[in-house]
Amino acid sequence: MDIQNTIQTLREELNQHNYNYYVLDKPTISDFEFDLKLKQLQDLEDKHPEYFDENSPTQRIGGAITKNFQTVSHEHRMYSLDNSYSKDELADWEKRIQKVLGDVPLEYTCELKYDGASISITYENGKLKRAVTRGDGFQGDDVTNNIKTIKSIPLKIKGDFPSTFDVRGEIILPFAGFEKMNQDLIEIGELPYSNPRNTASGSLKLQDSAEVAKRPLDCLLYFIIGNKLPFNSQFDGLETARQWGFKVPKESKLAHNLEEVFEFIDYWDIHRHNLPYETDGVVVKVNSFHFQDELGFTAKSPRWAIAYKFKSEQVSTKLISISYQVGRTGAITPVANLEPVQLAGTIVKRASLHNADQIEKLDIRVGDTVFVEKGGEIIPKIIAVDFTKRPDNSEPTKYITHCPECQTELVRGEGEANHYCPNFYGCPPQIIGRIQHYISRKAMDIEGLGGETVALLFNNGLVHNYADLYELTVEQILPLERMAQKSAENLVNGVKNSVSIPFERALYAIGIRFVGETVAKKLAKHYKNIDALSQATLMDLVLVDEIGDRIAQSVIDFFENQENRIIIERLKSYGIEFEIIEKINPNATNKLSGKTFVVSGVFEKFSRDELKKAIEDNGGKVGSSISAKTNYVVAGDNMGPAKLDKANKLNVSIISEDDFIKILNES
Ligand SMILES: NC(=O)c1ccc[n+]([C@@H]2O[C@H](COP(=O)([O-])OP(=O)(O)OC[C@H]3O[C@@H](n4cnc5c(N)ncnc54)[C@H](O)[C@@H]3O)[C@@H](O)[C@H]2O)c1
Ligand SMILES: [Zn+2]
């Protein structure tokens, strides 16, 4: 291929990767590989200036503007950063600076490079006015509403500030929040997000800011830009930002020479693993604004700053075999079994291969030597195959066609990433997984019963679904491994005691696909009992707050299934109520002393007589008309204007049924 063609191919390839990374938030190659290709292109362009193109990925910021938000021009352009991977490159950078500035003493701010999505936020008269993504550097998406949901971003500034300025920061998803989000997804049988950076970036692009508000995003600030700023160096700017109320990580340091910069890098290359969020390097900036102005910018990045990228830890090892796991929902996940190898402080033996497409893309085969990396420093993943080490007799991987557990032929729905085993009622890991979900802490929270025991019960033919749990007897389970009289009794009692559980928890427990904790709450509140829910049509369901087509269809499918209906009826017969039950606290005494009021409104939950009885049980006296002697009147919705009038005159408060029950149930 001639040079011009190579350059053209690289440009096209990099443009596609930029699109995958910035717009889709789904990169298909590692950053390291991306940076290598970019460098290769840069080198070719340097050698062949005749092929210069201002639209080349070397000259332009990779991000893009989406059509989903209003496009806004940046008052101050948003640049990228030049990258370096070695101390030599940093030394070269300093030389280039000294060429411009002469041999002056230089100070550098050293900051961590937070791995998320950049944001520019404009403040006017101390108030947050607008937040815009980096986009192509000139223009970005107005995501103000989404940004306002992030609690660490002040809506109003404290202290002395110029009338208008922009702040620049990184929107990140700390590890803890990221893992919680994934846990919630796994619980409802969904695939987890691949890493915090792409998830943070994807969150900013959501159309519904209520959805964004639920995500534990954070903003780490690294720059203030504007006219008449009350400081003249980067380091003082960070301190000021902190005083104005922004979150500025305290790890940043002022270095007085390159040696101190190297110390900072060496320290954080190790200790970054203890930070609660992801970092991918260190950003070194010339501290003085005066010098920054003199140095200026290239087409893409400031000359006064450079990123030093940490090498993401990679090792190579051998693929021993591929096994396939069947999840609770029947989703198949291929898992790579590796020759054990040390990586970032842990021994790695297995890595997820995600799905059939991933295997095909990597062209990974048993016996291959593979590169493993800790993606997002959490889950190890296979980056690539070392083809130079492929054994001659290796065979392409054939994805399984049948379930490894029950031999049912697998299916793959249109547009779905994973294969599924459709044998919902006969496939052991699906059955066990469903029962394990049913007993889990957030569901029925059954004391005395754990996930392993569930498998044991199933394997011994004692339970086939979660309703069977309620038929278990001590005599049946006593002969099982590691079971003693006491633990057997605890198990049976734990199951028995679980029946008095709020509707929303029971609804979550039965494991309808896509019905997680939050959705279960919404459905419970809306339908009040399972019969109403089971009769709901698709149209009814999608009208419920936050219920979309996919969830609605899944609810319909669940209740259309005869076996599910039988199980629910059985659960009811064991005492699970599957409805929201309002109770008047039977232990309330004298809750009403010293109060005088009329209970009025439409009585939805209790009859007039029940309410009267509750009043009397609480030491109150019920009257039929409002007078000084009787404190309470249960009037219902037919309280005539005369009574209302009288109540008003006597200054007696009129309260609803709900408020009345609340008073009785107050502890
Ligand atoms: N894998 C892929 O397909 C793919 C595609 C495109 C880009 N990428 C990766 O994305 C990056 C592209 O670079 P980029 O242009 O987004 O720049 P960058 O992320 O390397 O550096 C610039 C950004 O760093 C951020 N940053 C974090 N901490 C900072 C701090 N303390 N001070 C200043 N800025 C800070 C800012 O948001 C700034 O916009 C590279 O790492 C590249 O490998 C990967
Ligand atoms: Zn199966």
UniProtKB/TrEMBL annotation:
The keyword Mitochondrion does not apply. Keywords: DNA damage, DNA repair, DNA replication, Ligase, Magnesium, Manganese, Metal-binding, NAD, Zinc. Pfam families: BRCT, DNA_ligase_aden, DNA_ligase_ZBD, HHH_2, OB_DNA_ligase. InterPro entries: BRCT_dom, BRCT_dom_sf, DisA/LigA_HHH, DNA_ligase, DNA_ligase_CS, DNAligase_adenylation, DNAligase_N, NA-bd_OB-fold. Its EC number is 6.5.1.2. GO terms for molecular function: DNA ligase (NAD+) activity. Zn(2+) binds at C403, C406, C421, C427. SMART domains: BRCT, LIGANc. Residues 587-667 form the BRCT domain. It catalyses: NAD(+) + (deoxyribonucleotide)n-3'-hydroxyl + 5'-phospho-(deoxyribonucleotide)m = (deoxyribonucleotide)n+m + AMP + beta-nicotinamide D-nucleotide. NAD(+) binds at D31, F32, E33, F34, D35, S80, L81, E111, R134, E170, K285, K309. The active site is at K113. Its cofactor is Mg(2+); Mn(2+). DNA ligase that catalyzes the formation of phosphodiester linkages between 5'-phosphoryl and 3'-hydroxyl groups in double-stranded DNA using NAD as a coenzyme and as the energy source for the reaction. It is essential for DNA replication and repair of damaged DNA. Belongs to the NAD-dependent DNA ligase family. LigA subfamily. NCBIfam families: dnlj, PRK07956.1. This is DNA ligase.
